[in-house]
Write a structure and sequence with these properties.
With 166 residues, the chain is mostly helical. Helices cover 78% and strands 0% of the residues. It is built from 10 helices and no strands. The protein is globular and about 55 Å long. The chain starts with a helix and ends with a helix. The relative contact order is 0.08. The model has no long low-confidence stretch (mean pLDDT 97).
Length: 166
């Protein structure tokens, strides 16, 4: 399993998937392995497969906040926004100080056009972890959508300052 995680971190997604699948063939009840296999599938754009892995991880470990966060993000990317919101809220009930959970919820709410709520989620994520360029960018987009162009521009500037190639 961990060899697969290392391969994933090195960008070797096919090898990573094979290694984690092999680990799961030895221990199918390993929720983190299902979650990590889901991450690999999501990185490859295989959302249906990723969602299935995250669902399996959540079924095996209902209190596994990271799996709920990842399931919510994958469902959001797959257009299942109401279900994504529920997953993100479940993750936050388990880990209220998880910046990714707040940010993912904000992304889904923004997709639903709920920009005030989305901005609040992004702000909460940034209180918890101020150096997230993606979250500054997402907050900027939400603010731009609300017509708050000056504040949006400041968010975009911060995102670029944190990661110049963004």
């Amino acid at each position: 399993h961990f060899l697969g995680v290392i391969a994933y971190q090195r960008g070797k997604h096919e090898q990573a998937a094979e290694l984690i699948a092999r680990a799961l063939s030895l221990n199918a009840s390993n929720a983190p392995a299902h979650n990590n296999l889901g991450n690999i599938f999501r990185a490859q754009g295989k959302l249906a497969e990723a969602i299935a892995c995250y669902r399996r991880a959540v079924a095996l470990a209902p209190d596994y906040a990271d799996a709920h966060v990842n399931l919510g993000a994958a469902l959001g990317a797959h257009g299942k926004l109401d279900e994504a919101v529920a997953c993100c809220r479940r993750a936050l009930s388990l880990a209220p100080d998880a910046p990714r959970a707040h940010s993912n919820l904000g992304n889904v709410l923004a997709e639903q056009g709920r920009l005030d709520e989305a901005a609040a989620c992004f702000r909460k994520a940034l209180v918890l972890e101020p150096d997230l360029p993606e979250t500054h960018f997402s907050l900027g987009n939400a603010l731009r959508g609300q017509g708050q162009h000056g504040e949006a521009l400041a968010c975009f500037d911060k995102a670029i300052a944190l990661r110049p190639d963004f």
